[in-house]
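Q: Given only this backbone (350 positions), what sequence would you predict?
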């Protein structure tokens, strides 16, 4: 695909979160992204979206693929439909980006990676927390060596924000806080601290109106020897609430990084400390409090576009995301058995 002028983008699933993807692709037009078609099984929704973004509309993915030349499809439906839609794309050698969670279960994730591989199709997962401006700034500080190699961390997504308002389906999911938001924070733990050797997890159901676990507390031992704590809950009662921010504390032999609410970072190094605002700007189409998450969509799509055009895997390729998903499975296994679990039980490393 390298050197090609523009990349024809199709999007499937015009629901709650897709609006952010659509605005991001519109912003990336200057970088060669050309949104050409949208698809949703809901005729009203797709018609409204097509009108808003001035593109062709379809209520069936197969018809869209067979009617419009598409280089890359952005699948922003919910996890239950990801496997079928990704397979339709792979069979046509159309590159695909799939929203998280990759799929409802491990076997489906494996199947999606194998199907893409068997067709030589490009596949990635839209896992956007690591692409947010603030988390990339933290990564840069780690890379600068200011704190040495991190050997301890706490990564925390704690909120009481009504996530069920925009995403009512979350209240009925069989597996909730680890698969919906823990997966983001586990991906950050890998991104900052490296691969995981074993983890222990305790889950709680603190909200009687919600079907599955709404709170998870995990301890990770990384292959580097480092230890991190990963927390996620939808049942925190704090004012001010930090939604949708991930707060973190990280330590190394030469210093520390602390990110607090409002995307404020304090770095301690060489016995000195400096404070910095690390959040990204509000964009024409973003609004508080979702702006942190929305802006991350823009950077994630930009990454997907440049990786695809360069013919290289995305940082959050299907293969890479299997390593994050194996942590999700290990966490549920640990919570149900009361023992520490090795993700290698799902995803044996070489
Ligand atoms: P939603 O239910 O609001 O929207 C999904 C849309 O997909 C619906 O309009 C539905 O009609 C359509 N659809 C479903 N199956 C289809 C098919 N086979 N063909 C065509 N259209 C189909 O869901 P949502 O809240 O927008 O979530 C979508 C995904 O985004 C989920 O996987 C969710 O976890 C994820 N999400 C990610 C973030 C983030 O990256 N930070 C934030 C919120 C949601
Ligand atoms: O980002 C997500 O995946 C959403 C959340 C509510 C955490 O923002 O589900």
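A: Predicted residues:
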């Amino acid at each position: 695909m390298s050197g090609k002028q523009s990349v024809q983008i199709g999007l499937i699933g015009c629901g709650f979160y897709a609006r952010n993807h659509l605005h991001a692709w519109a912003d990336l037009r200057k970088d060669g992204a050309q949104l050409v078609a949208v698809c949703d099984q809901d005729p009203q929704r797709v018609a409204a979206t097509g009108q808003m973004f001035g593109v062709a509309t379809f209520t069936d993915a197969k018809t869209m693929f067979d009617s419009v030349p598409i280089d890359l499809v952005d699948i922003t439906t919910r996890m239950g439909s990801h496997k079928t839609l990704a397979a339709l794309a792979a069979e046509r050698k159309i590159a695909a980006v799939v929203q998280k969670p990759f799929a409802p279960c491990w076997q489906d994730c494996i199947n999606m990676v194998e199907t893409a591989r068997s067709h030589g199709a490009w596949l990635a997962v839209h896992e956007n927390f690591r692409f947010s401006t603030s988390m990339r700034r933290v990564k840069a500080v780690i890379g600068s060596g200011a704190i040495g190699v991190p050997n301890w961390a706490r990564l925390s997504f704690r909120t009481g924000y009504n996530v069920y308002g925009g995403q009512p389906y979350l209240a009925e999911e069989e597996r909730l806080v680890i698969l919906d938001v823990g997966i983001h924070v586990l991906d950050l733990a890998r991104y900052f601290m490296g691969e995981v050797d074993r983890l222990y997890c305790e889950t709680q159901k603190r909200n009687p109106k919600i079907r599955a676990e709404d709170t998870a507390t995990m301890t990770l031992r990384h292959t580097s020897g480092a230890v991190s704590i990963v927390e996620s809950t939808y049942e925190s009662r704090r004012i001010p609430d930090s939604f949708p921010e991930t707060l973190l504390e990280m330590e190394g032999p030469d210093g520390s990084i602390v990110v607090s609410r409002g995307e404020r970072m304090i770095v301690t190094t060489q016995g000195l400390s400096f404070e910095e605002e690390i959040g990204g700007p509000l964009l024409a189409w973003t609004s508080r409090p979702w702006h942190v998450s929305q802006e991350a969509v823009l950077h994630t799509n930009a990454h997907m576009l440049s990786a695809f055009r360069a013919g290289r895997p995305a940082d959050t390729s299907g293969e890479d995301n299997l390593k994050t998903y194996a942590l999700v499975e290990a966490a549920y296994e640990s919570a149900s058995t009361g023992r520490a679990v090795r993700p290698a039980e799902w995803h044996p490393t070489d």
